[in-house]
Specification:
GO molecular function: flavin adenine dinucleotide binding; FMN binding; NADPH-hemoprotein reductase activity
Largest sheet: 2 strands, antiparallel
InterPro entries: Flavdoxin-like, Flavodoxin/NO_synth, Flavoprotein-like_sf, NADPH_Cyt_P450_Rdtase_alpha, Riboflavin_synthase-like_b-brl
Protein name: Flavodoxin-like domain-containing protein
Number of strands: 8
Pfam families: Flavodoxin_1
Order of helices and strands: EEHEEHEEHEEHHHHHHH
CATH class of one domain: Mainly Alpha
Helix content: 25-40%
Radius of gyration: 22 Å
Strand order of the largest sheet: 1-2
Distance between the termini: 19 Å
Keywords: Flavoprotein
Number of helices: 10
Length: 264
């Protein structure tokens, strides 16, 4: 998994890139999946392509063609499709069924507070107003003023960590859909991404779990040519599809496995 930052390798990958540039002799099998955003035209997939080529030049054997993940598109769908092809190569007995195995959850409350890593102080948002609405050219542009905690400083170029939480109304929709008690509120509000657009692979999975034939056909059609306009552009989530097609029998453990983690 390779990402880049402003056209360069990330801090965590600098030593690895330097090692490859030293032209070592490698006798390994490898696979590369690159992450990026196509809006950055001049640097899109630059580092993944570079690393892929260097490993091959050093004697590595490419198991599968380099995967391409675009954060401005169906990133998770692209990764799932690439990963599925990789596993098919690694395990000759892997079939191509869109099935999620049922798993029973075992819950143990060890700490009711979310682990925030290095975040110990919080700023206060004093002002948050829209300057430019989202349009075909780009996303929404906002003016945000933040009061820093005591003993905290900020210089131009510094970063602020945004701690994400899901909107309360979406959390309650999930609790209602899966008949859960409010004890599941914390995990749904602060640990998993509920509003992430459903991927093509996930659409196919829901279709296989749908008991109504007409609804099954309608769901499966969403993974076709209409996917970008009807799913990505409108940011239709797994929950949106489940609420629209009631005959889809997706269990809560299966649902949790399909959700990506909230990213700080």
């Amino acid at each position: 998994m390779i990402a880049l930052y402003e056209g360069k390798s990330c801090e965590t990958a600098k030593q690895f890139v330097a090692y490859l540039e030293s032209k070592p002799k490698l006798e390994i099998n490898y696979a590369v999946f690159g992450a990026g955003n196509h809006d950055w035209v001049n640097t899109y997939q630059k580092i993944p392509i570079y690393i892929d080529q260097m490993i091959e030049n050093a004697g590595g054997t490419r198991i599968i063609e380099r995967g391409i993940g675009d954060s401005a598109g169906d990133f998770y769908g692209a990764f799932e499709a690439w990963k599925e092809n990789l596993f098919r190569i690694l395990r000759k007995d892997t079939n191509n069924q869109n099935v999620i195995s049922e798993e029973k959850l075992s819950i143990e409350i060890v700490n009711t507070k979310r682990n925030l890593g290095q975040i110990t102080d919080f700023g206060i948002v004093l002002q948050n107003k829209i300057l430019i609405e989202a349009n075909e050219i780009g996303p929404t542009v906002r003016h945000v003023e933040i009061k820093l905690p005591k003993r905290q400083t900020y210089r131009t170029g510094d970063y602020l960590a945004v701690l994400p939480t899901n909107p309360i109304e979406i959390v309650y929709r999930v609790l209602k859909r899966f008949h859960l008690s409010v004890s599941a509120f914390d995990i749904l509000s602060g640990y998993v991404e509920l509003a992430q657009p459903i991927s093509r692979k996930q659409v196919e999975t829901l279709a296989t779990l749908c008991k109504n034939e007409k609804e099954q056909i309608n769901i499966r059609n969403l993974s076709g040519d209409v996917y970008e306009n009807e799913i990505l552009t409108k940011r239709i989530s797994i929950l949106d599809v489940l609420e629209l097609y009631r005959s889809c029998e997706l269990s809560f453990p299966q649902y949790l496995r399909m959700l990506p983690s909230l990213r700080i």
